[in-house]
Amino acid sequence: MHIELHARFANEPTALRARDLTSACVHCGFCLETCPTYLDGRDERDSPRGRIYLIKSLLEEGSAGAETRTHLDRCLTCRSCETTCPSGMQYAQLLDIGRALIEVEAPRATAGRIARRLLRFGFAKPSLLRAGLVAARLVRPLLPAALRRKIPAGQRAGKLPGTAHARRMLVLEGCVQRAATPLTNAAAKRVLDRLGITLVGVAQATCCGALDHHLAAEDAGRERIRRNIDAWWPHVEAGAEAIVASASGCGAHIAQYGELMAADPGYADKAATISSMHRDLARVLAAEDLEALSPRTDVGRIAVHTPCTLQHGLGEQGLLRDILSRAGFSLAATQDEHLCCGSAGSYSILQPRISGRLRERALANLASDAPDLIVTANIGCQLHLQSPDIPVKHWIELFDAV
Ligand code: SF4
Ligand code: SF4
């Protein structure tokens, strides 16, 4: 696809980058049938190709309105289209540019701007979230069912290992996960301890910055990246082996630090190093002797939900199923695994109707073989998929139980 940039954008580096990215698209339309928002409403403007056309027209005409913003907002950034595209289109990068441009070209109403700011502020602060969750649990019985199921039950993290091993990896403690499911990283620390690896959380490294990034607050997102790099760097120099994320959404973002900070001379090299050191928790386990862990496998049949950030973002499509089968768990069949469950960070709050429909579809696909349990690898999906019918856990909890 060729773009003739409007004179306004002729010397704009991001517009030039968008033009280059768009040139990969050959209009074939293969991506439409694997795009959850296109399948939801069959509107081409809610498809990858349609959104590429909308961004192209913004760059060629020099302006765009609220309608373009609506269709860009409806994208989940699930990157299923990237997995499908035979032409190697880097769609998410183009979408980031389109979203940043549309914030300027078609500014949101005050209420929309405030809501986004509150989300960015509230979700990135574990202490605030923790207090909010305590309050929400108290009034839970009074809430409507749709809200009630979004409030996770309280968890006990359990005792942390005390041994310091020669092998050390850093773990991102995160923001939402730290507050809502503290068991996940505690379980990861215990499991890796049994493998002779100490997982070190660095208090100053908090939110990965993905939420800011996906809400087009690029500067705030980069500031978080700088803070995390500064927090991790002394440990990297002291020999940490890897930077581990147990939430694949955070991991997929850390893997992009190098690309996101490429234009920052003070951080470009360090960011590239950090990205190269990122390892999803499942990838860490995959390289180890899983027999040594001997987890309890009599937990029934398990439906595996592979988050988009793991399968499309990090390209690890079969990884969870592989390690769980290697460890002896019994897996249930699932359908249409490539389709997003509708969580997508703040999407479930900002686009509740589409998100709700995608959730129902994902749950039906996960339940198709009557599993006893669903496991996933990302906090957002874990909370979003909660239902009274089938429990949903982070997969590392399975290896924690012996
Ligand atoms: S599959 Fe790739 S090349 Fe084909 S329309 Fe979609 S983005 Fe363009
Ligand atoms: S990122 Fe997901 S929702 Fe967005 S266009 Fe691609 S497939 Fe569709």
Name the ligand types: iron/sulfur cluster
Low-confidence stretches: none
CATH class descriptor of the largest domain: Alpha Beta
Alpha-carbon distance between the termini? 55 Å
Strand order of the largest sheet: 2-1-3-4
Rounded mean pLDDT is: 95
- Major beta-sheet overview: 4 strands, parallel
Percent helix: 40-55%
Structural class category: alpha/beta
- Provide the CATH topology of the largest domain: Rossmann fold
Description:
There is one protein chain. By secondary structure, this protein is an alpha/beta fold. The protein folds into four domains: 7-105, Alpha-helical ferredoxin (Fumarate Reductase Iron-sulfur Protein, Chain B, domain 2); 110-148, no CATH class; 167-285, Rossmann fold (3-Layer(aba) Sandwich), CATH 3.40.50; 294-400, Rossmann fold (3-Layer(aba) Sandwich), CATH 3.40.50.1860. It has 23 helices and eight strands. The chain has helices at residues 13-22, 36-41, 48-61, 66-73, 80-84, 91-105, 110-123, 126-138, 145-148, 176-180, 183-194, 210-214, 218-237, 248-254, 257-260, 268-277, 281-286, 308-313, 319-326, 347-350, 352-366, 379-384, 396-400, and strands spanning 167-171, 197-201, 243-245, 278-280, 301-304, 330-331, 373-376, 392-394. The strands form two sheets. A four-stranded parallel β-sheet has the order 2-1-3-4. Helix 22 links the parallel strand 7 (373-376) and strand 8. Helix 1 crosses helix 6 (91-105), helix 3 (48-61) crosses helix 6 and helix 4 (66-73) runs antiparallel to helix 6 (91-105). The N and C termini lie far apart (55 Å). The model has no long low-confidence stretch (mean pLDDT 95). One iron/sulfur cluster is lined by residues 25-31, 48-49, 81, 84-85, 87, 89.
